[in-house]
Design a protein that fits this description.
The protein folds into 3 domains: about 80-150, no CATH class; about 160-220 and about 280-460, Sandwich (Jelly Rolls), CATH 2.60.120; about 220-280, no CATH class. It is about 5% helix and about 35% strand. The protein has helices at about 20-25, 80-85, 410, 435, and strands at about 5-10, 60, 95-100, 105-110, 115, 120-130, 130-135, 140, 140, 145-150, 155-160, 170, 175-180, 185, 195-200, 205, 210-215, 230, 275, 285, 285-290, 295, 300-305, 315-320, 335-340, 345-350, 360-370, 380-385, 390-395, 395-400, 425-430, 445-460. The strands form 6 sheets. Strands 1, 2, 11, 15, 16, 17, 20, 23, 28, 29, 30 and 32 form a 12-stranded mixed beta sheet that branches. The longest helix is centred in the N-terminal third of the chain and has 9 residues, at about 80-85. It is elongated. Pfam families: Glyco_hydro_16.
Length: about 475
């Protein structure tokens, strides 16, 4: 495995490319490189799911100070700088500064002060409007258990990325670049949410360094095929016979989520359904997943994409727990990008007390979009650790969930989002269904364009 690159990231996203840049074919965010002598460190080796080995610490403190003299390294340079660092905690407390040593400390709450301690000054910190102010400065030192005035920034190491270019995408038999089979599997058939599209790999291709998932209208709803809407392919099980007529329930609008629709072919087609309804599908699209190939837990997940939220379009990037014999919703679900009908949604779903799908609990946040928003590329991020899940769009928090909400004491089921359990990713463009809206109001084709996907693992904090 190539040596991981270490990236020091702030979690704000700069304004994205303009439409003019997009039209000029400007490709940004390619192969992150940072200049400067990053200090090496000993990292915890990840297991094959990208998470720390059992029984080992998840992160460690790393000193990334660069270019400082030994006389000033690690010192706070002034009383003003110390006040800013204490204020960054946005909570009530007491800030202490020792100028000769360059030490800055913070005591939360309402500690007392000792005015006789030589060389120290102190200031009270008062929170307000999601920030704080520490003033005025007086002689003395805050008393109590000292803490660093400001917490370190997280250090993220790149664990996996796909830029959907010739480095990862592969040519198929007709010379079209397709997503890497090392990373992605294509879903085939009708799947979830009473959606109208037939998923097939032909609707996903790599072009100009992007993944483009295209949803097409193949025929009008009144254009019924001759004979059966579905045909049996690759199935010769005498104990459970199938024919074209019995497969008819697998085609919309009568699609049912049970046998025979969930039977797959007895050949090398992978997960292709034995009841093939592709020739009668009104819409086709693509859905890709990393199940069994790239699975992750805690980390920072990032995707840059351009979406279509006109009626009928339902773009999604989500993560599902892949635990043996654990059905939904006990396995957990994280919807990072969920866009439909000019709205963005993010959510976290887990089991309720019964564990049944009918009692699933969802925590969600959403924003409405203006008409110009989807002309441009935007960046989605999921930050996930043992305590919380936070989902951001262009640096703005859309949802933050304390993972205690899914603890077994509240739900009667193990929390699927803790203990570094493995999740796989799904990337798809659905049509209609529970949330997508009325596709008859929109001109096709529709596209979901993805510039890149990156996954980072936390390796520690700056000092």
């Amino acid at each position: 495995m190539a040596r991981l690159r270490v990236l020091l990231l702030t979690l704000a996203v700069l304004p994205d490319a303009t439409l003019a840049e997009e039209q000029q074919g400007v490709r940004r965010h390619r192969h992150m490189r940072r200049q400067g002598p990053f200090q090496e460190f000993k990292s915890v080796p990840p297991n094959r799911f990208g998470t720390p080995q059992e029984g080992q610490e998840h992160s460690e403190t790393v000193n990334l100070t660069m270019g400082s003299s030994k006389d000033t390294e690690g010192k706070v340079v002034s009383q003003w700088a110390c006040a800013l660092m204490c204020a960054s905690r946005a909570t009530q407390g007491c800030c202490s500064y020792q100028g000769e040593l360059g030490v800055c400390e913070f005591q939360p709450g309402t500690p007392g002060t000792n005015a006789t301690v030589p060389g120290w000054t102190q200031a009270r910190c008062t929170p307000g409007y999601a920030t704080a102010k520490c003033a005025p400065w007086e002689q003395g030192k805050c008393m109590g258990q000292a803490q660093p005035a400001a917490e370190g920034l997280a250090i993220w190491a790149l664990l996996w990325e796909d830029h959907f270019d010739t480095d990862t995408c592969v040519l198929d038999g007709s010379g079209v670049l397709r997503p890497s089979p090392e990373f992605w599997s294509s879903e085939i058939g009708y799947k979830r949410g009473k959606e109208l599209q037939w998923y097939q790999p032909e609707n996903a291709e790599c072009r100009n360094g992007e993944l483009i998932i295209t949803a097409r209208r193949e025929r009008q709803s009144w254009e019924k095929p001759e004979g059966s809407q579905c045909r049996v392919v690759g199935w010769e099980d005498k104990e459970q016979p199938l024919d074209n007529k019995s497969c008819g329930v697998c085609a919309p609008p009568y699609f049912q989520y049970y046998n025979p629709c969930d039977l797959v072919r007895q050949d090398d087609s992978g997960s292709a359904p034995a009841c093939d309804c592709s020739q009668s599908a009104e819409f086709t699209s693509a859905s890709l997943m990393t199940k069994g190939k790239k699975e992750f837990s805690y980390g920072l997940f990032e995707l840059r994409a351009k979406i279509d939220t006109r009626p009928g379009a339902w773009s999604s990037w989500w993560a599902i727990g892949d635990f043996d014999f654990v059905p939904w919703p006990k396995n957990g679900q994280i919807d990072i990008l969920d866009a439909f009908q000019h709205m963005l949604k993010a959510s976290v779903t887990h089991a309720g007390e019964s564990g049944l799908p009918s009692s699933a609990i969802q925590h969600a946040g959403a924003r409405m979009l203006d008409r110009d928003w989807e002309k441009y590329y935007h960046t989605w991020q999921l930050e996930w650790d043992s305590d919380f899940i936070q989902i951001r769009v262009d640096g703005e928090t859309l949802l933050k969930v304390d993972l205690k909400v899914a603890d077994a004491v509240r739900t009667s089921w193990p929390n699927p989002f803790t203990r570094a359990k493995k999740f796989f990713l799904i990337l798809n463009l659905a049509i209609g269904g529970h949330a997508g809206g009325d596709a008859t109001l929109t001109e096709f084709p529709m596209e979901l364009r993805v510039d890149y996907i990156r996954v980072f693992q936390k390796r520690g904090y700056t000092s």
